[in-house]
Amino acid sequence: MTKASDIFTLKNANNVEVSFIGRGGQIVGIKVPDAKGEIADVVVGYETVDAALAGDAYFGALCGRYANRIVNGQFELDGEKFQLEINNGPNHLHGGVDGFNLRVWEVEPYADPKFAQAYKLSLVSPDGDQKYPGELTVSVVYGLTDDNEFVIDYTAETTKTTIINLTSHAYFNMKGAGTGTVENHELQLNASKYTPIDGEIGTVTGEIAEVKGTAMDFVDGKTIGEACNSDDEQVKLVDGIDHNFVIDGYDGSLKLAARLKDLDSGREMEVYTDQPGVQIYTGSHFDSSETGKLGAPIEKWGGVALETQIFPDAPNKDNFPNAVLKPGETYKHTCVYKFIL
């Protein structure tokens, strides 16, 4: 039986290490060398497991049943209305107050020749859990390859028609957690469109807008600081970026979604996914009140989350991708964080 504090580590031949704990499958560290072989932990978080268990439970964790926001916590399936918990302004976020990030997942070694090392995480969410319909059986494989790819493979099945959107909520700082902000990180997104947010609604409106001419244009790459320090109204709403980007050419196959590079250390990461969106969040709620890695305060814009996903509030938006899972179907989602050494 896995305990909340149990820690597991994946290692490959190139000194890349990924560590996570039983609670929430929470990624507590990813160690990556730079071109000179200097190793840094590139995931924002805490120095110890005890601190991670006492701190922000979203850091590096698996989020569900529905990651991101559902407006007013309401959705309808087959004529039946469902009311979820409200835990983020007027909306439901990441499964509510008892999301998958707080559950202790059952963890066991997983053998697959494509991985240098892998673990399988399992969870059964009962019918009615978080006020969602259907018993949901979830499996997540964390695998690390010798090509420096950290692969997250999700699968889930349900006993009743339900909605689902799972993601991983790690915040990355490629210079190293605790070494400052990500303002000098260059971000490139394979996304010429995004879903604007409304201040009163607290999330998306259903609009899909062009990024061209806005601070959200990362098509050719630019620093995160250039966007976060702009006067763009969308940026001002959340004091940075907390937006879903629409991945160009989405067809359900694995595609490059993002590139993130620290211009100081040269460490670089590519993000691949078979999902239609990626939420970019620059951690604007970090206020330096918590102590993180290297004994440094966790400061505003100290890391950036790249959460591959279905769009926020998709169950209520006919023009957004499908988030409904029916009995007999299998939800599948792959996300790859590839470190360029």
UniProtKB/TrEMBL annotation:
Source superkingdom: Bacteria
Biological processes per GO annotation: galactose catabolic process via UDP-galactose, Leloir pathway; glucose metabolic process
Cofactor(s), names only, from the UniProt record: Ca(2+)
EC number of the protein: 5.1.3.3
Annotated Pfam families: Aldose_epim
GO molecular-function terms, A-Z: aldose 1-epimerase activity; carbohydrate binding
Annotated protein name in UniProt: Aldose 1-epimerase
The UniProt record lists the keyword Isomerase: yes
Family as reported in the entry's similarity comment: Belongs to the aldose epimerase family.
UniProt subunit comment: Monomer.
